[in-house]
Each structure stands twice: as structure tokens, then as C-alpha cells.
Amino acid sequence: MRVHRDINNLPLFKNAVITIGTFDGVHTGHLQIINQLKKEAGLVDGETVIITFHPHPRMIITKPDGSKTAIKLLNTLSEKIELLQKQNIDHLVIVPFTVEFSEQTAEEYIKNFLVEKFHPHSIIIGYDHRFGNKRQGDYKLLEAYQSIFNFKVKEIPEHVLHHIIISSTKIRHALEEKDINTANEYLGYTYFFEGKVVEGNKLGRTLGYPTANIEVTNQNKLIPANGVYAVELEIDTILQDNSIVQRTSNMPHLKGMMNIGTRPTVGGTKTVIEVNIFDFDQTIYDQNIRVYVKYFLRDEVKFDGLEALKEQLAIDKINTLQVLNKN
Ligand SMILES: Cc1cc2nc3c(=O)[nH]c(=O)nc-3n(C[C@H](O)[C@H](O)[C@H](O)COP(=O)(O)O)c2cc1C
Ligand SMILES: Nc1ncnc2c1ncn2[C@@H]1O[C@H](COP(=O)(O)OP(=O)(O)O)[C@@H](O)[C@H]1O
């Protein structure tokens, strides 16, 4: 898959079969559109092109009351690229979404953007897709321009769109409600997030459970609700020459248990994410860590002291290994 970020410097696509969307989560519903895209391209010996906008349009467009939506997304841009890469799309075009871009009229969007930049053979979009200033452009307008600009519009069936909307909403809610099984089932993969290992209170190691504290840098990434989870992990390794950073992705995932919470037992107030990694003994401050959220174990509890917490951590470890090893 080739990734294009400069819309003024796109290649000449061959019989471009394009679709436009946010594809947040790149979940099982999205795969149905991607399959339709590939099928269509196969029929006309064309190239598959996904057009996506970044930042998310809802973060750029102000609402009638003048505010902007602070939205939590399932994927950062680089995660989305990585997930789409696995789908063997020919081209991903990331269009910088600006106020100026959003103010194009629907006709300008069709002529100056879709036609001029992509020369599409076919455009696959949902019947309810809206574009252009004040969302004035719709499926019907594209249809009206088909013969003038020599492209075909293909509709994404309503049941597929319905499935996508349902899936995205379900995944978000499930993660917010600790229902990891539902989220992962709708995603078609294990939900993950990344962050940098930062210093904590250095209490973990005295308990016998050192915990890497993770700071998620992307403010828009949706983090599951507070609770204790069984997780798998990948860590970036800084090689000896200090220059190359390589993810442990070729190795089996590390296993561990994670707490997302305020740590009431030790008088914490701020929500932190911390993970105790099993069979592991390395200092990994400042390193990047990716957490795959596999199962929810329990809610965070205020214990009567560290001994009680320690006993619970021993139980959590047994439970984590049990759920992780069952699959
Ligand atoms: C799997 C796991 C479960 C945890 N559960 C709780 C909990 O229920 N209540 C609580 O107050 N803290 C809980 N903690 C947080 C501990 O209090 C925390 O790891 C300890 O204070 C060490 O903090 P430090 O890394 O800043 O040194 C949990 C931590 C882990 C890794
Ligand atoms: N098994 C392990 N799991 C998590 N972190 C570990 C482990 N072994 C060593 N570490 C290192 O120790 C740190 C956690 O120890 P801890 O005493 O909890 O300190 P802190 O409060 O700074 O997180 C991690 O950031 C990591 O660098």
C-alpha cells in the first residue's frame, strides 16, 4: 500500500476505484467495504484507493454553538495506516482536513478534488454520504455528475453501512463499559494502544510487582474504562548502537496485568495506566510500549493497606495467566 499525504502530488491512478471514509477502527464492518472495493477494482483492472481525512472532520468543523467536538477515536493515524496496510489496498490518501477544505462547495469538491486529483473510474460511497460546504453534496449530486466526468457511482448497501455504524458505536461503548470481549469481536482483532513508559512512585517494586507506568501521548485515543485487565505487550527495543528502535513484534507477545485507575489504596487521585509484565526484568523507562487489551478481570478496589493489595495482585496474576493461556 502506498501512503500519500500531499494531494497536490498524487500519481496518475489506473482506473481508480475509490472510497471515502474515516475508517476509524478498521473493523469487521469496514472490511466489507474494502472487499467491495477490491472486487470492483478486480473487474476493471483498476487500483484501489481509500481517501481518508486527518484530523477527523468533527475536530475541525465548529458546531453551531461555536465549540468543537473533543472526540475519542479507536485508532491514531499511524495505527489506521498499519491496519489498512494489512488489507492490501493499493493507495491510501490522507487528506489534511482544514477549514478551507471543508468550505469548498459540493461541486468544487467533485470537480477540483475527486475528479481532478483521482480521475476515478468508480466511486463507492454510502447513500447517506455528505460532502462539501454545509454537507450539501450527496449521493444524488454525484450521480448527476457521472456522465459529465465519466465515473460510476456505486452505493454501499444499507445493511453494510448499518453494520458499520452499529459496530463503531458498539466498540466504543464496549470499551467504555469494560466489555472487552464485545469490542474485540466487533473489531476482528485485539484492541490496542501505545504509550511511553514514565516514572511512577517506585512503590511497585517494593510490593514485588514492578509496574511500568504508561503515558499515552495521543489525546484522542480511546482508553478503556478504569479497571484491571489481562494484557499482552510489545516493547520497542533500543538496540546497542542506540540508533535503531525495533519493536518486539516478531517475538511472542509478553504477558501482563494492567490497572487503569486512581490507585485509591495508596491515596492516588489521578488516573494512571500501569502494567506488571510477567517473566520480565528490564528497565524500560522512555521506551514505547504497545498494550493489547485481552480481558477485563475486575474493578479497582480500595484495599486496607498494601498487604491486601499484594494478595489481590497474586490472585490477579493467576487469573490473568488462566485467561491468556486458555486461547
Ligand atoms: C494488575 C494491577 C491491579 C491493581 N489493582 C489495584 C487496586 O485494585 N486498587 C489500588 O488501589 N491499586 C491497584 N493497583 C495499583 C497499585 O496500587 C500500584 O501498582 C502501586 O501503587 C505501585 O505504584 P508505582 O508503579 O507508582 O510504584 C493495581 C496495579 C496492578 C498492576
Ligand atoms: N516485570 C516488570 N514489569 C514492569 N516493569 C518492570 C518490570 N521489571 C522491571 N521493570 C521496570 O521497573 C519499572 C517499574 O518499577 P516501579 O517500582 O513500579 O517503578 P515506577 O513507580 O517508576 O513505575 C518499569 O517502568 C520498568 O522500567
TrEMBL record:
Pfam families recorded: FAD_syn, Flavokinase
Domain Riboflavin kinase: from-to ranges: 186-325
Source organism, top-level taxon: Bacteria
Protein keywords: ATP-binding, FAD, Flavoprotein, FMN, Kinase, Multifunctional enzyme, Nucleotide-binding, Nucleotidyltransferase, Transferase
Keyword Kinase in annotation: yes
Cross-referenced InterPro entries: Cyt_trans-like, FAD_synthase, Riboflavin_kinase, Riboflavin_kinase_bac, Riboflavin_kinase_bac/euk, Riboflavin_kinase_dom_sf, Rossmann-like_a/b/a_fold
EC number: 2.7.1.26, 2.7.7.2
Transmembrane helix as UniProt keyword: no
Enzyme class at the top of the EC tree: transferase
Catalysed conversion reaction: riboflavin + ATP = FMN + ADP + H(+); FMN + ATP + H(+) = FAD + diphosphate
A biological process from GO: FMN biosynthetic process
Pathway: Cofactor biosynthesis; FMN biosynthesis; FMN from riboflavin (ATP route): step 1/1; Cofactor biosynthesis; FAD biosynthesis; FAD from FMN: step 1/1
Family from the record: Belongs to the ribF family.
PANTHER family: RIBOFLAVIN KINASE, RIBOFLAVIN KINASE/FMN ADENYLYLTRANSFERASE
Function in brief: Catalyzes the phosphorylation of riboflavin to FMN followed by the adenylation of FMN to FAD.
The protein, known as: Riboflavin biosynthesis protein
Organism: Ginsengibacter hankyongi
Classification lineage: Bacteria, Pseudomonadati, Bacteroidota, Chitinophagia, Chitinophagales
